[in-house]
């Protein structure tokens, strides 16, 4: 069963429009969630962690335990935001060790 | 600088010729992992290692081997590469605990098997 779901493979928005990249998770414990970004087939980079409650490059993400979601939002998209975005869940893999499980990713395309 | 280093960045090889992709991290992380990335399929985990001499299969381990003799290194071995292993490969490392900073990824290795 897929534990991290990103329902959109591709999301296109116009520059200046709001962006919301969806992520839903399935986890019985207390979740730890991350967003990673990958620009043009470069390495994946950590964008933000839910426990930090920070805003990076104008992006924010709020953990909603009731809806089991961790959607990534930005009020005004910029062309440089075009990238692949991966949502990830830090799961207990046994004996107190944790591993990240990734969603399949959403490609964001910002149209000038 | 804290980093994960993969080599080579690009590799073209022929079917059946054994190859090794190296991965090294300088953060004293216990956990290391290999992924392949293919269009439309996202990241798929090949193998992972919780610590020295402890390795386990991920989702797509067939055709690959790994070893973890030292904490910093986690090479990926393709004993007899085939064209369906043409892909972009990433190595990652982390501390496998709650509250961690997640994974640090290498720059990737683009492998083409002809």
Describe what you observe in this structure.
The complex is a heterodimer of chains A (112) and B (114). In chain A, strands 2, 5, 6, 9, 10 and 11 form a six-stranded mixed β-sheet that branches. Chain A has strands at 4-5, 10-14, 19-21, 24-25, 32-38, 45-49, 60-61, 72-74, 83-94, 97-102, 106-111. Chain A is an all-beta fold. Chain B has 114 residues and is mainly beta. Helices cover 0% and strands 50% of the residues of chain B. Chain B is built from no helices and eleven strands. In chain B, the strands form two sheets. In chain B, strands 2, 4, 5, 6, 9, 10 and 11 form a seven-stranded mixed β-sheet that branches. A four-stranded antiparallel β-sheet of chain B has the order 1-3-8-7, with no helix packed on it. The radius of gyration of chain B is 13 Å and the shape is globular. Chain B starts with a strand and ends with a strand. The interface between A and B is medium-sized, with 25 and 25 residues.
Keywords:
heterodimer; A: 112 residues; mainly beta; 47% strand; B: mainly beta; seven-stranded mixed sheet; four-stranded antiparallel sheet; 11 strands; 0% helix; 50% strand
């Amino acid at each position: 069963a897929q534990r991290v779901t990103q329902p959109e493979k591709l999301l296109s928005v116009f520059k200046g429009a709001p962006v919301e990249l969806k992520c839903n998770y399935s986890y019985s414990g207390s979740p730890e969630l991350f967003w990673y970004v990958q620009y043009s087939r470069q390495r994946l980079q950590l964008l933000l962690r839910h426990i930090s409650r920070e805003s990076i490059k104008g992006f924010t993400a709020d953990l909603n335990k009731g809806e089991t979601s961790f959607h990534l939002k930005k009020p005004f998209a910029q062309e440089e935001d075009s990238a692949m975005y991966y949502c990830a869940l830090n799961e207990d893999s046994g004996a107190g060790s944790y591993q990240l499980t990734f969603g399949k990713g959403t490609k964001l395309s910002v149209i000038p | 600088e804290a980093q994960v280093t993969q080599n080579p960045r690009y590799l073209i090889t022929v079917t059946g010729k054994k190859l090794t992709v190296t991965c090294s991290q300088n953060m004293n992380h216990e956990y290391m992992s290999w992924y392949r990335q293919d269009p439309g399929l996202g990241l798929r985990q090949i193998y992972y290692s919780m610590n020295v001499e402890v390795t386990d299969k991920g989702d797509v381990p067939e055709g690959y081997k790994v070893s973890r003799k030292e904490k910093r290194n986690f090479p990926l071995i393709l004993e007899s590469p085939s064209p369906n292993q043409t892909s972009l490969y990433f190595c990652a490392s982390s501390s496998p605990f709650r509250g961690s900073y997640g994974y640090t990824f290498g720059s990737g290795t683009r492998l083409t098997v002809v």
